[in-house]
Design brief:
The protein has 164 residues and is mainly α. It has eight helices and no strands. It folds into two domains: 32 residues; 129 residues, no CATH class.
Length: 164
């Protein structure tokens, strides 16, 4: 019977040592994680959503990485910015680029060559070389508007008075 009690005591001592080790490792990991990853106040979350929506509407590669980097630089919630980039996906990219083109063509004057683009190598080359400013200005405009809507929507949704 005594051997059994000593074994149980030894087992609980090992378990507490393991839990202390886990707690120390957890504290060290938490202290190494940058604060924007952990901040969960409403302004940080709203900023993360705004950064993610802004980057998602720019016709650039590596949007998730860019959104995470910008969010860390701006000290807003990094995970929410990286998730909101997925606003653009294979189903939504064509309508969003078309909307960007339409908005950009109302802001930036286009040449007549861009109105009647044919589906040939010369037509595609003309559209990509002369059409980038139009597309980029339109997508940038949509990005600013969408980011502002996302920011204020999240602030309103997380407002204490709106939740009650």
């Amino acid at each position: 019977m005594r051997a059994k009690i000593e074994f149980c005591h030894l087992n609980s001592a090992v378990a507490s040592a393991d839990s202390n080790l886990v707690k120390r490792i957890y504290r060290q990991l938490i202290n190494k994680i940058p604060r924007p990853w952990l901040a969960t106040d409403r302004h940080s979350l709203a900023g993360g959503v705004a950064v993610g929506l802004f980057v998602s509407l720019l016709p650039l590669p590596l949007q998730t990485v860019l959104a995470g980097g910008f969010a860390a630089l701006l000290r807003v919630h990094v995970p929410s910015s990286m998730v909101m980039v997925w606003f653009t996906n294979p189903l939504t990219v064509v309508p969003l680029l078309y909307a960007g083109w339409m908005v950009g063509s109302t802001i930036v004057p286009t040449t007549p060559d861009l109105h009647n683009v044919s589906f040939s190598w010369t037509g595609i080359l003309t559209a990509t070389t002369q059409g980038w400013p139009v597309l980029f200005v339109g997508c940038l405009t949509l990005a600013v508007v969408t980011a502002a809507i996302g920011y204020f929507s999240v602030l309103h949704a997380l407002d204490d008075e709106a939740c009650s």
